[in-house]
Write a structure and sequence with these properties.
It comes from Truepera radiovictrix (strain DSM 17093 / CIP 108686 / LMG 22925 / RQ-24). The protein has 133 residues and is α+β, with helices and mostly antiparallel strands. The protein contains 7 helices and 7 strands.
């Protein structure tokens, strides 16, 4: 089974995310033993950011790393697990709120596809980029 990075590359709709992970030097971390849970914004989610935001992040490795690790939770959190949680601590150190009252929302972003398995964790596809507070 492919790792988290390989799953994202193979999916085809995470090109911006994969480019950002590579720019931040996080490929090895996300391909490591895990398990990790990744809330993965699609290319469309990145496109919704104000003009210049992605370029700005790609040129600021420290800020880019903060944003990317804010999308990652240690351990494997499935959609079923999320039903019992109100928040999850991110690798970045912040807390993501989890709201399951109307579908599943994480930090305000809607989960549009859940539980994509990888050999070192799980990916949940989200419709917005999460920005740490």
């Amino acid at each position: 089974m492919p790792n988290l990075v390989e799953v994202a590359v193979n999916a085809g709709n995470f090109q911006t995310l994969v480019k950002a992970v590579q720019a931040a030097g996080l490929e090895e971390t996300l391909a490591g033993s895990g398990p990790l849970t990744v809330f993965a914004p699609t290319d469309e989610a990145f496109a919704k950011l104000p003009e210049g935001t992605v370029e700005g992040l790609l040129s600021d490795k420290e800020q880019l790393t903060k944003v990317l690790t804010y999308h990652v939770v240690s351990g494997k959190v499935t959609a079923a697990d999320a039903q019992t949680l109100s928040s999850a601590k991110t690798v970045e150190g912040g807390e993501l709120s989890i709201d399951t009252s109307d579908g599943v929302r994480v930090g305000g972003a809607r989960v549009i596809q859940a539980d994509i398995e990888a050999d070192n964790g799980v990916i949940h596809v989200i419709d917005s980029v999460l920005l740490p507070g």
